[in-house]
Design a protein that fits this description.
mainly beta, Immunoglobulin-like, five-stranded antiparallel beta sheet, 13 strands, globular
């Protein structure tokens, strides 16, 4: 069954907060896997020139202090972007656009061995367009959405030294295509990846 979650600005803070109420439904949330000793994808400390988006598959490393004072750190990577995405099996009524097309973004977050547990969700992810607008992840889940799904709502939890990978499904107006993927958790500078041309 399809569900849609409305996520407010406060929900984006779930990405890095190890909150007590975080739980996930194992039927829709991919399981966290133990992080390998090599970098998860690309270079964990990938950097680009200011204003230049990263290439898909390049990770960006982050480190912070959680709301409870514990250390959190890891690597976030936008792995792939597919548009159109024929594997999406949702009715047009599920889209936010009159003449929709579907896109699938696959992402991965890995925590460092020294990090405390981190909560993640779709909330900080968005698609950026050349006209300086953004389309926030709509938090689609359930039947008809490609698997494994990235956590929605309250988010998923990642323990130290593990990774969580999953897919986010977006509806877009037919004929439009983003130029960037934006990861913007609350209180941090946004990170961007370039969307390849069709």
């Amino acid at each position: 069954m399809r569900t849609r979650a409305t996520i407010g600005l406060l929900a984006s803070g779930l990405l890095l907060g190890a909150l007590t109420a975080c739980s996930s439904d194992s039927s829709t949330t991919p399981a966290a896997t133990k992080q390998s000793s090599k970098a998860p994808t690309g270079s964990p400390d990938a950097k680009s020139e200011p204003g230049t988006p990263l290439a898909l598959g390049k990770g960006t490393h982050w480190s912070d202090t959680d709301t409870d004072g514990t250390h959190i750190s890891g690597t976030t990577t936008a792995l792939s972007y597919k548009q159109p995405a024929p594997e999406v099996d949702l009715p047009a009524e599920a889209a936010d656009f009159k003449n929709p097309t579907w896109a699938v973004l696959e992402v991965k977050v890995c925590t460092d061995d020294s990090s405390s547990t981190v909560s993640v969700s779709q909330a900080p992810w968005a698609l950026g367009f050349a006209d300086d607008t953004r389309l926030q992840a709509p938090s689609l889940s359930g039947s008809g959405v490609p698997k494994p799904e990235y956590p929605t709502g309250d988010g998923g939890r990642i323990t130290a030294g593990t990774c969580l990978r999953g897919k986010l499904t977006f509806s877009l107006e037919h004929g439009t295509r983003p130029d960037t993927i934006v990861y913007a958790p609350e209180g941090r500078d946004p990170i961007e990846w370039a969307v390849p041309e069709a």
